[in-house]
Amino acid sequence: MTASSIVGKDLTGLEHMTPEQIRLILDTAEPFKEVSERLIKKVPALRGKTIVNLFFEASTRTRVSFEFAEKRLSADTVNVAATGSSVSKGETLVDTARNLEAMRIDMVVIRHPSSGAAEFLGNRIDSNVINAGDGQHEHPTQGLLDLLTIRDKHGKIEGLKVCLVGDVLHSRVARSNLWGLTKLGAEVAVCGPWTLLPRGITELGVKVFGRIEEAIEWADVLNVLRLQLERMEKGFIPSVREYYRVFGVTPERLERSPKAITIMHPGPMNRGVEIDSRVADGPHSVILDQVTNGVAVRMAVLYLLAGGRAELADAAKRGSE
Amino acid sequence: MRPILLQGGRVIDPSRDVDGAADVLIQDGKIASVGRGLTAPDGAIVRNVKGKVVTPGLVDLHVHLREPGNEDEETVASGARAAAAGGFTAICAMPNTDPVTDNQAAVGFIVRQSGRAGLARVHPIGAVSIGQKGERLAEFGEMVSAGAVAVSDDGKPVVSSHLMRTALEYARTFNIPVADHCEDPALAAGGVMHEGLVSTRLGLKGIPAAAEEIMVARDVLLAELTGGHVHLCHMSARGSVAIIREAKERGIRVTAEVTPHHLTLTDYACEEYDTHAKMNPPLREAADVAALRGALKDGVIDCIASDHAPHAYDEKEAAFDDAPFGIVGLETAFAVAYSELVQGGVLSLPELLRRMSTEPARIFGLPGGTLAPGAPGDVCVLDVNGVWIVDPTRFHSKSRNTPFAGRTVTGRAALTVVAGKVVHDAGAGAAR
Fold this sequence. Notes:
heterodimer; A: alpha/beta; four-stranded parallel β-sheet; B: eight-stranded mixed β-sheet; 29% helix; globular
């Protein structure tokens, strides 16, 4: 039986976390950043721990980021992809989980197309479960790395105005951002066509901008969400061309703001659709910092869920815990 | 068959506005008399039911028995057994079996299985369209001759307005209602719960209330056009209530049912991805629950139906998106309704019994729903002081999928009599 850590047994989402828990993870990530800058990028904090990366959906960035985080903490890792495994042969999620558990693992990192899949798994196995994205629900480590990146850039989160731009309806990144940002005192807005904004969004205490120009005028930070091209096929938007014309984040639009707006994107980007290349590659883009921070945040989450104490993270990274 | 004399109970017969202390004598499978100080005929079973309520057996217009096709989840016999335990003397089985109950032979099979079980009466509902495909009308005439009491493609809406129109007209020929599952399939596509704040938070695809309301409005208009009788299944949305209210004021032949769960739970029950709160139509908002309760009180919604939908436990043991819709309800319907509506001050007990017995029997033209002398001996004795905790492992149904597990409720069937025969006796354990 895995004991519950200071951040709980599982990390399934940010909605039910306290601001203190979120800050603790961000603070714990700080010392881990340096590990990735070393010549020998490895510390023994999770030596002897077995972690399964269980990916029911294709992922490159998140899976690789988790794997680096695990390996840099010296955990033993196994990757299971849905295609070609027993999962594609009709095995249920609960059976997959029980079989993994029977092999005496310590943690599962799961990505799954169904909302709630991580919670489902966490309620049924003793191992720690980390949600690497479940359906349209949450992607908590992405939310955390976005928070860390904003904090790095602005020195604070409280009082900042952050606008999530684009397909909020289908975005688990948007939900995790929304919870994390509001808990840490940021003002949050969403901007997009009403077809891509979820019902009841205003009841969550966020502003809604129908026009990107208004969002740019208001925001300190724009987190530009990926527009999946299948949204056009399903009729949520008439064309990618019009989307870019109406909602695309372009240098011309940004120039009208007196502020230097920080530009974020969870990736993978559709250049020339939701974001102009000149913005993505521009001086105010922190998109690659997000990726770098992703490894540190995931190291912090793995370390804390394994029962590591935040004040020892510094020592842990020196390998002298 | 021994006569049965139920002595000293509170007799509530909504069909005749009776509510008072009396004895009830059931003889030769029929209600023989209701009155004070009745004498027991020779050989009668005499039961003192003082402190209990004697009422026409409950009638459920909407259940899913999984026979033929999924007998591991429910059979006609196990469903009829669960019904008897819940105080129901008659239930109507929806035709979405495998194969679909869309012809006289299939209807006759349900009737025979019901007879073999000899528990609650199981009345078959025939399909509107062959294979429930929404294309060609099934043979209503032959199905009615074989025992069908209504037609429905429940589980699926009748999408084509032309087919619905034809069904209403053709059903009128045989004086049966067309029961419709109101759902605009394009609006509901892929949805797994009510579309609202909770679905947004959980990241689950929603089914907007308008998906139901659009079809309710269409069905009402087609009933007006054809003069046919449309029965609207499991209403869930306050907008539907408003449309039905107006239709009834205009004299359109529309009746409607609501389930105990739509009267008592909201979309918040889906929190933590509880698949036992996944049903179609979905649980909606508190304002919908309030409107449905009001509509039941004033008769805009005519009756309560369980939409008993058994599923194997492992099917519900899945991610929310992947779990099937539906919950069982026969063994909790009365207790949930009594605890929430009568004890909650929404309805009087006679009003509740009207909505669970007399009215449903009237809507489908079924025998029962009354204690008038000469009526079928379908009687239920209710213990309205019995407090119990819902424990699905004790269900007579083959399935356990209920959101009410662990809930403390009041009211249960003490004795259920069908055609003068005891089919459930809580005091004596299971009667077979």
